[in-house]
Amino acid sequence: MKQSILVMGGGVIGLSCALELQRRGHRVTVLEINRCGGQASGAAAGMLAPYSENLESPDAFFRFCLQSLRLYPDWQEMVKKVSGRNFEYTNSGSLYIAYHEADLLALEGRLLWQQQFGSSGSILEGDALFRLEPNLSRNVRAALHTPEESHLYAPHYVSALEQACRLTGVEIHDNLGKLSVTEWRNEIAVQSADQRSFSADRLLVCSGAWVQELSDTFGLRIPVYPIRGQICAYEVEEKPVRHMVFSNQGYLVGKENGTLVCGASEDVAGFDTSVTDKGIDRLRKWNKQAFPFLENKIPFHRWAGLRPSTQDGFPLIGSLTGASHVAFAVGHYRNGILLSPATAMLAADCVEGKNPSEFNQAFSPERFGRRG
Fold first, then answer.
1. Strand 316-320 relative to strand 323-330, pairing
2. Among 21, 202, 223, 334, which is most buried by a count of CB atoms within 10 Å?
């Protein structure tokens, strides 16, 4: 049955959910306090790397990330077709590098369980490694090569998502300032800072790092906190880094526009998105150790975004018990770009009341209990 749905939040998760719901025949309105894609979404490096970013075990979060990676080929083609806009989507593969013999055992253990979940990865050393990534420091002992991993250019992707939403009929209101949920138990009403009121049959909360402001409204503990991620970029020629390169210090990824993106220096700074010399210097220190040609290069661009981190590292995705017309899709931390297609599918299923998936219990928005 066709329903009217308010989506609170116009980041990559909110826009992806809105697009999927609109494509399923619903009437969707997106409400955004700033501008669409203006926080973590637009600041992201756009890596689609569940094997490299989830290192310990195949828990529910890893499996969800892997599901989303496998959705991406068809999803990104759909977004391009519907929006009429192109954006970089590159199946570069990744290298997770190690400098010491002792770290090689960890790489081998990681590869063992990842191969059980579809990785065609391998451990590379010596000439085999440097043929694949010629400019890598010779101090690197080995690397875990994962061909399946990809990346995209996040600002263009988010812009295409917004355009796809608009062209399919999603109504978008941005720069609304503070949003307040004034009714939710029996009907949905949301009010903006300028006193405009929006109503619908259902509410999907996708408000990222700001969702904790709704704890009192819904009487829930919502431990989602902003983590500042600082990133820098270099101007380079002839794409000197061929793969996404990860270490325990950060990542480097080359883009088609001639930039090399390095991230991310993370700290707790509330909602402050300023960039610090300390944060960028930490990035520069490790990336020149990985790629010596960066020794004397100065980043031409530095920026920061707020990543919504949960207390247990899992997102909050699902409907509320006793109020199934209210659902959440928040807390994706540094994986919002990667998880946008899988979250869109799962959240849309929750909104439509479809059979629960294997992730509903792990990602329940009520798992931290009620306030008081």
1. antiparallel
2. 21
